[in-house]
Specification:
The chain is mainly α. It has one domain (about 1-35). Helices cover about 80% and strands about 0% of the residues. The longest helix is centred in the last third of the chain and has 19 residues, at about 15-35. The mean pLDDT is about 75.
């Protein structure tokens, strides 16, 4: 995870792995929200 964040900050652009990780992160957040977390 730290490597993905570092690449995102340094490259200043969205790489496919970064986009995938962001989508997965938002998906997990939405799942927690549905569970009432």
């Amino acid at each position: 995870m730290p490597l993905i964040r570092g690449n995102f900050l340094h490259s200043k652009r969205l790489d496919p792995p970064t986009v995938l990780s962001l989508v997965l992160l938002f998906y997990l957040i939405s799942m927690f929200a549905k569970m009432g977390f």
